[in-house]
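Troubleshooting: if your tokenizer reports a length mismatch, compare your output against this known-good record of 108 residues.
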Amino acid sequence: MVHNLQEHCTVGYVKRVLDSAGFFGLYDFLYVPLNFKSHEVVGFAFINFSSQEHAQKFIDGFNDLAVEGRPLVVEPAKNQGLQAQIEHLRESPVNAASEEFRPKVFEL
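Known-good structure output:
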């Protein structure tokens, strides 16, 4: 889980950052919750990496990294693994929302 994201850090933005930092193909889930009314990021993201090693590499590289003056806080999420993430959001109203609000699942 990544905390302290700027309001403009959409799922597309986070994906581009991950991919350009060498994590392309190393994560299978990405969710950047948005406020349904304002369409702005609420300040955090969930990323599921394909291995603990990839997750640790991300933590080591991004935790406390200042992005536009704000230090990111990276920590393990309560729900671990792709299936746990999907199950956690299964009944969420986000699934009935427009595509921009929904979590993204990627093939590894």
